Amino acid sequence: MAAPEDGLEAWLRYAPLPAEIAKSYPRYLGIVALCESETSPVCTAGKELQDGLKKILGQQVDITNTLNGADELPASTILIGTLNAVPWAAVGKQVIPTLKEDGFWLSARNDGTAAVLIVGQNERGALYGTFEFLMLLAQNKPCPTSYASSPSAPIRWVNQWDNLDGTIERGYGGRSIFFNDGEVLKDLTRVAQYARLMASVRLNGIVVNNVNSHCNLLHPINLRGLGRIADTMRPWGVRIGVALYFDTPQELGGLPTSDPLDSEVVSYWNGVTVQLYQHVPDMLGYLIKANSEGQPGPLTYGRTLADGANMFAKALKPHGDGIVMYRAFVYNHHLDESDWKNDRANAAVEFFDGLDDVFEDNVLVQIKYGPIDFQVREPPSPLLAHQRRTPIILEFQVCQEYLGQQSHLAYLPPLWRTILDFDLRIDGKPSLVRDIASGNRFGWKRSGYAAVVNVGNDTTWLGSHLAMSNLYAYGRYCWDPSSNETSVVQDWTRLSFGGHPTIVNTITELSMESWSVYESYTGNLGIQTLCDIVKTCHYGPSPAAMDGNGWGQWTRADAHAIGMDRTVATGTGNAGQYPPEVATVFENPRTTPEDLLLWFHHVPYTYQLKSGKTVIQHFYDAHYEGAQRAQTFPARWKALRGLIDDKRFEHTAIRLSYQAGHSLIWRDSICTFYYAKCGIPDKHNRVGNHQWRVEAEDMVLSGYKIIPITPFESASKGKAIITDSNRTRGTAKCVVPFPPGKYNIAVNYYDHLGGKSRYQLFLGERLIGDWTGDLEECLLHDFSDLRDGHSATRITFNDIQVERGDVLMIVGTPDGTELAPVDYVSFLPEGIID
Ligand code: GCW
């Protein structure tokens, strides 16, 4: 039996290799870490290596920090150092290829000496090389005799959206590991552990606080705290930056304005910068979200975005290599939908028009991968084709905000691939997005990647063990954006769960399918993730919420047609923001890739796709197929029982079966909604036809009452039941209207905030199920305080024998504002999904 694991070590568990394999490795006699200080990443590397060798091979190996005058590398010794520190004699006759900043060279001597050389271009590189050595070892992969590796881009950073009060915007894995109660946490143990994880996948920077920043970040106590965070992460080669709140001069500094051209404001920020560098001498710089979603910014004072960015850039310049990461996420969120020319997707190019040449040379524009907002599918942001002189940082999300919030499985590299490999054909020349981000396309010295990461203080980091592959993969992709999605998840799986072929194959297959499955049951053909954007939780289905508001994530669905017309000819002109060759493709619905059809075109539901299906039939089919595939996930996961530890097995099993249930809620909501909208029935007669369900509202109720659900499509037949009050229990009964036999019995109910109702399910005298509505605790995030597509959920009891005349009874005990709401019960014979 595998010992229970809580996920804290993630992919750095260093599980022991089987004894006979461990024996086949050399017995290492010493680690030489050529470093001068305890805080040097080379010193960290030495200790990490010592720890890894002990855990993986059971070898206790001592560390020294010099070669003791020896020229040659002693046998069975592992030497770690930088290019400058490693003596040439130790390298011997080998030639170390040119390494880029942070690169490394790894060499396991095949001359019978069993010596290993790990040489970094810098200290960080030496640490990365050490992790590479350890991760090969942990997977029992041979260490190469000469292997050099350098990053695609110097900027490989993460952005935390952590608030000073300890909450995390879009956090689904617990509370902040950085802040609590307005201050930096005293105990930064988890921060060090996080830096270790980051370093192991070669991430070298982090902005620790939310882009929706607060002026109190710059309170003296927090300046000291930021210094402590930086000190904690530095031994791992991770530098920190901060996100600033634009109106700090007024709100904390007491100045009458925060106008970036005001001399007092300028000196205020200069002063702040001096102080920050006192605490964080190697600070990365400033991340700025301004004039975005209600945040103040230069435009508030009648200045340009460049005026704002340059003010910060000039403040940073005297202190080193600090940069301004100026976010391109600037748009009007009060956009008028009645004007068909309005388009949020146009905003970035419009707002940044003409600024490319006027930014200071330490300003970088940080651009989300798509023009809107981390949707399940988007084209690349057109702004990526407009930056020639000012370099960019390409922003991804490891956080699954619009991708199931870590309660649904979605392995993201296949999505990232659609962006990274997209050829924008700038000036008619090959212009892959990854070559733009790496700086190669336009010869930028500094550019790269940032990803929003929502690690929290839960031991799983992200609230889900399987979601961690995204964090691991993000690092791998920054280093090498042409990495293979499958082999990345295989490596991660071997490291995180072990190398048994069933483990590796199962997790790889589920992961590789997961994004496409999620896309199938959420939003197809480029219509975006059809979730609720008004209640801001961005989670469950609510297609109507996309329109009728100023946020601009519109679908423009009416009774006849759907999609945004972004053509130049008749629409918003967004297609024309791309270079001509790409614009031509997007301008025409016939040449637009079909998975982006509705992103660029407003077409009738009856528009015929290449498959011969209409758009509406494609919606129906994709949703049925996607949800059907999601049903297979929990069953396939079962193959891992006993092969991995029970703790992580169960934790994941719960999530996959929750997802299977929620995928049906997605399916039914979307199909019901569009059927109601256009009136075109499903060719296969599935939509609205639920033969195996007993609607709660059709049962005999006592202490329960019937209520309509809003939006209507979040309940089967639009209605559900709740108890009469929050003090009395309710019962709902009926004679099972299906023939005797074996069934899986599924109960659909709403588990929202405000209470933890108890449910009991009886069949005759038999208690079939007894559970509480505590998803918010179990899945670690708030869905909604309402009965809707976020809170709708399903629980299933398998293999229940039903006899003729059996009476089904649900007993609901309300709690707080949660009135034990029930939607329906499904009786599912083998192979039926309903
Ligand atoms: O996707 C949206 C999120 C906001 C976020 C914003 C941004 C931090 O819903 O929570 O704010 O993007 O990227 O600034």
UniProtKB/TrEMBL annotation:
Name of this protein: Alpha-glucuronidase
Primary residence: secreted
Location(s), subcellular: Secreted
Matches recorded under SUPFAM superfamilies: (Trans)glycosidases, beta-N-acetylhexosaminidase-like domain
Boundaries of every Alpha glucuronidase N-terminal domain copy: 10-133
Organism: Aspergillus pseudoustus
Keyword Hydrolase: yes
Keywords annotated in UniProt: Carbohydrate metabolism, Glycosidase, Hydrolase, Polysaccharide degradation, Xylan degradation
Sequence similarity: Belongs to the glycosyl hydrolase 67 family.
Domain Glycosyl hydrolase family 67 C-terminal per the UniProt entry, residue ranges: 463-686
Enzyme superclass (EC): hydrolase
CDD domains for this protein: CBM6-CBM35-CBM36_like
One example GO MF annotation: hydrolase activity
Catalytic activities: an alpha-D-glucuronoside + H2O = D-glucuronate + an alcohol
Residue ranges occupied by any Glycosyl hydrolase family 67 catalytic domain in the UniProt entry: 139-461
InterPro entries hit by this protein: A-glucoronidase_C_sf (IPR037054), GH (IPR017853), Glyco_hydro_67_aGlcAse (IPR011395), Glyco_hydro_67_aGlcAse_N (IPR005154), Glyco_hydro_67_C (IPR011099), Glyco_hydro_67_cat (IPR011100), Hex-like_dom2 (IPR029018)
